[in-house]
From TrEMBL:
Organism of provenance: Psylliodes chrysocephalus
Organism lineage: Eukaryota, Metazoa, Ecdysozoa, Arthropoda, Hexapoda
InterPro entries: Aldolase_TIM, Elp3/MiaA/NifB-like_rSAM, RSAD2, RSAD2/Viperin_antiviral, rSAM, rSAM_sf
Protein name in the entry: S-adenosylmethionine-dependent nucleotide dehydratase RSAD2
SUPFAM superfamilies found in the cross-reference section: Radical SAM enzymes
Family indicated by similarity: Belongs to the radical SAM superfamily. RSAD2 family.
C-alpha cells in the first residue's frame, strides 16, 4: 500500500504540473486574442520571414566595435523561449538565426542546441542558422546537434592573430584563426553549411583576405561596415566606444573593390544593414534601430508577434534589396561537403 506521505507528494506534484500548463495555455490564449485585435485594426501586417534572436548578451570576447553588448545577463528559460519560437513560426517565420553575445556560452552550447533541435525537428523550420565567434565550439556539439543546423557563421575580421587581438576578438592564448579552421572542418564532416562574417574597421580595412577566403570556400562571406549604435557602442550609456573603429563608406568600398574576385562576398554597408534585420533581444523584444539606437518593443510573449512587429522599425524593402532571402537551407543548396 502506498503511504499517505507519498500519495500527498504525488498529488502536490500533479497539481503543480497542471498549474504550469494552465499558465502556458492561458498565455497562448491571451496572445492569440492580442494578435487578433491587431489584425482588426487594419495595420499593415509584417511577416517575420527571417528573425535574428540574440538570446544572450554575454560573451567571452571583447570586440571593440560590438553593437550588442553585455548590458544584461538575462536569458529566457527553454520553455518560454520555445513558446516564443512557436509563435514566430505561426506568424510566418521560415528562418531563425541564433546569435548573441556568444550563443555557445550558456550551458556550453546546450541551451542553443536544444533551441536549434526544437526549431528544426518540431517546428520544421526550413532554415536554422547560428552566428558565433567559434571559440567555444567542440566537435561533440556537432555530434549531438549538427543535424539540426543549416548554416554556421563564424566571425573573423582578420587572418592575422595580432589584428584579431587588437580588435578584441580573442581570449587568452586561444588562436582565433586556428579555431576557425577547426570549425570549418567540422562543418564539412557533419554536413553544416559554413559561412564567414567580417566587420571592416580601422584595424583590418587594408588587409587582403582573398586568398584565405577562397581557400576556406564559405557558402557566403558577409562583409559589414562597422556600425555605430547609441547606447551600445557609442555614447555615455554604452559599454563600448567604437568611434575609433569606424570607417567611411569610401574606405568600405575600397575594401570591397579589393575583394571583387571573391564570388561568395555579400557586402552590407550601414545603409543596408541598420534597419533591414528583425532583431529579437534576450527578452524577445523587437529592437528598432531607425533612430541610431535600439528601442525595444514589448515582448512577443506579452503582446503577441504582430503587435510587437509594429515597433521593430523593419525595412522590408531593404531586406529584399540586400538579398535577405537566399538559399538558406542545406536542402536548397543541395550541397554535400
Amino acid at each position: 500500500m502506498m503511504s499517505s506521505k507519498v500519495l500527498k507528494l504525488i498529488i502536490a506534484i500533479t497539481a503543480s504540473f497542471i498549474d504550469f500548463w494552465k499558465h502556458v495555455v492561458g498565455k497562448f490564449k491571451k496572445i492569440a486574442v492580442l494578435d487578433s485585435d491587431y489584425v482588426n485594426t487594419g495595420c499593415k501586417k509584417i511577416i517575420p520571414k527571417s528573425v535574428n534572436y540574440h538570446f544572450t548578451r554575454r560573451c567571452n570576447y571583447e570586440c571593440g566595435f560590438c553593437f550588442h553588448t553585455a548590458k544584461t545577463s538575462y536569458m529566457l528559460n527553454l520553455v518560454d523561449a520555445k513558446m516564443g519560437l512557436k509563435m514566430l513560426k505561426d506568424a510566418g517565420m521560415e528562418k531563425i538565426n541564433f546569435s548573441g553575445g556568444e550563443p555557445f556560452l550558456p550551458e556550453r552550447g546546450r541551451h542553443l542546441g536544444e533551441m536549434a533541435k526544437f526549431c528544426k525537428a518540431e517546428l520544421k523550420l526550413p532554415s536554422v542558422t547560428i552566428v558565433s565567434n567559434g571559440s567555444l565550439i567542440k566537435e561533440s556539439w556537432f555530434q549531438k546537434y549538427g543535424e539540426y543546423v543549416d548554416i554556421l557563421a563564424i566571425s573573423c575580421d582578420s587572418f592575422y592573430e595580432d589584428t584579431n587581438k587588437a580588435i578584441g576578438r580573442g581570449q587568452g592564448d586561444k588562436n582565433h584563426v586556428e579555431q576557425l579552421m577547426k570549425v570549418k572542418n567540422w562543418c564539412e564532416k557533419y554536413d553544416v553549411l559554413f559561412k564567414i562574417n567580417t566587420v571592416v574597421n580601422t584595424y583590418n580595412h587594408d588587409e587582403d583576405m582573398s586568398e584565405k577566403i577562397l581557400t576556406l570556400n564559405p557558402i557566403r562571406w558577409k562583409v559589414f561596415q562597422c556600425l555605430l549604435l547609441e547606447g551600445e557602442n557609442v555614447g555615455p550609456e554604452a559599454l563600448r566606444n567604437a568611434e575609433s573603429f569606424y570607417i567611411s563608406e569610401e574606405i568600405f568600398n575600397t575594401f570591397l573593390e579589393r575583394h571583387k574576385n571573391v564570388k561568395c562576398l555579400v557586402p552590407e554597408s550601414n545603409t543596408k544593414m541598420q534597419n533591414s534585420y528583425l532583431i529579437l533581444d534576450e527578452y524577445m523584444r523587437f529592437l528598432d534601430c531607425t533612430s541610431g539606437l535600439k528601442l525595444p518593443s514589448k515582448s512577443i510573449l506579452d503582446i503577441g508577434v504582430s503587435n510587437a512587429l509594429q515597433f521593430s522599425g523593419f525595412d522590408e524593402a531593404m531586406f529584399k534589396k540586400r538579398g535577405g532571402v537566399y538559399k538558406w537551407s542545406k536542402e536548397a543548396n543541395k550541397l554535400k561537403w
